Amino acid sequence: MTVQIKYCGCQSEEDYKLLIETKADLIGFIFAESRREVDPKNVNSWIEKYGKPKKLVGVFQNATLQKIKDVMNTVPIDIIQCHGTESIHQLKEIRNHCNKEIYKALPFGENIIEDITAYGKVSDAIIIDSVSQGRFGGTGIPFSWKEVPNMMKTAERLGILCFIAGGIKPENVSELLRQHPHGIDLSGGIEENGKKNVQKIETLERMIMS
Ligand SMILES: O=C(O)c1ccccc1NCC(=O)[C@H](O)[C@H](O)COP(=O)(O)O
């Protein structure tokens, strides 16, 4: 199985023009409070100019259904990524009202296998991410990857994909790939001075393909 690549936190037309030419299977936009938050109207103008990626992900954090619907009215997202403390009930509501794939981000911790088992029943994929100083996403910090094979097995039993996020970069991606994640999700590790960087992406993709 080839690893799926998700590049997240696309912030500008320049970022988008670069990311659309990469090997990414998914490109993510942050519609939550973050230095990477984007305006849906801008995102749509970039898509109209440069085309749509294989899959477009909208990242939300404890958003109301109305907020998600408002974004969907402007941006043709394929996947709703819930990156906060959304409950299983809320995920079901989002699925019923939005009719899109749902990816749930879960913070890595000692109950991660139980969490994947519970949330995996109402999600199309799970993203395991680091938590740091109250931040749930875009931390730039990796967690211990020893548990990755167990997480993959748990997801496979549920028939879903499991992505790994948090501090992945060209320098450490080979170590992670040895644990055979279904997908990897990167943001800060492919940036230089807050912008997506072509050299970092090319180096990363060479490491993945080798
Ligand atoms: O990236 C953010 O700023 C962010 C803010 C709020 C919620 C989610 C966010 N990012 C979600 C992602 O999918 C990131 O790719 C993931 O957290 C990994 O980020 P990094 O550690 O910088 O590679």
Automatic annotation (TrEMBL):
Record EC number: 5.3.1.24
GO biological process: L-tryptophan biosynthetic process
Pathway linked to the protein: Amino-acid biosynthesis; L-tryptophan biosynthesis; L-tryptophan from chorismate: step 3/5
Xref: Pfam families: PRAI (PF00697)
Source species: Fictibacillus phosphorivorans
Annotated protein name in UniProt: N-(5'-phosphoribosyl)anthranilate isomerase
Residue stretches making up the N-(5'phosphoribosyl) anthranilate isomerase (PRAI) domain: 6-204
EC class: isomerase
HAMAP family: PRAI
PANTHER family attached to this UniProt entry: N-(5'-PHOSPHORIBOSYL)ANTHRANILATE ISOMERASE
Keyword Metal-binding tagged: no
Alphabetized UniProt keyword annotations: Amino-acid biosynthesis, Aromatic amino acid biosynthesis, Isomerase, Tryptophan biosynthesis
Domain of life: Bacteria
Gene3D superfamilies tied to this protein: Aldolase class I (3.20.20.70)
Recorded GO MF terms: phosphoribosylanthranilate isomerase activity
Stated family: Belongs to the TrpF family.
Entries under CDD domains matching the protein: PRAI
Catalytic reactions on record: N-(5-phospho-beta-D-ribosyl)anthranilate = 1-(2-carboxyphenylamino)-1-deoxy-D-ribulose 5-phosphate
